């Protein structure tokens, strides 16, 4: 017959196992279902590692064979806009220029967050010289004198 203390020990053991499993799961694990995510995701055939998750934007570009070359552009009203240019690690830039500018409430990552199907990498692999702009409200931009926490920064 099971005693109450046995049940309590069992609960703690299960909790401990659950915590260990969660710690072991990397932040880059992607699964098709919630069940798979909690069922040994490291060996589960419904899970995979997405190398683009939880890494910097430079790392994402590297995963797809590119280097992000950073250019800063100062506007007349002294905002500093970061614009990235894709550089092929083996050959140099492409020979026809394409400038991609993101939409509302987004930033240049819209063009690199879809693995090999990302528009930036797709065009880069076709041999285009790809430039990626960022508007001044994104985290990739700043102002020469104003901090982003200063309400004046947002008066543009
Ligand atoms: C589930 O995920 C695995 C690994 O990412 C993939 O190979 C498989 O095709 C997926 N299956 C379905 C039904 O989406
Ligand atoms: C990756 O995830 C950890 C927590 O799991 C976090 O501390 C870290 O800042 C993340 N790194 C990036 C580059 O997002
Ligand atoms: C993505 O593209 C790179 C560069 O062309 C290639 O090396 C890699 O195998 C591709 N990955 C997938 C998952 O298609
Ligand atoms: C770049 O130039 C090469 C050689 O002139 C040409 O074959 C290729 O189509 C060009 N690529 C683009 C994207 O225009």
Automatic annotation (TrEMBL):
The keyword Nucleotide-binding does not apply. The gene is LOC115884130. Residues 57-115 form the Partial AB-hydrolase lipase domain. Residues 1-24 form the signal peptide. GO terms for biological process: lipid metabolic process. Pfam families: Abhydro_lipase. Keywords: Signal. InterPro entries: AB_hydrolase_fold, AB_hydrolase_lipase. This is Lysosomal acid lipase/cholesteryl ester hydrolase-like. It comes from Sitophilus oryzae. The lineage of its organism: Eukaryota, Metazoa, Ecdysozoa, Arthropoda, Hexapoda.
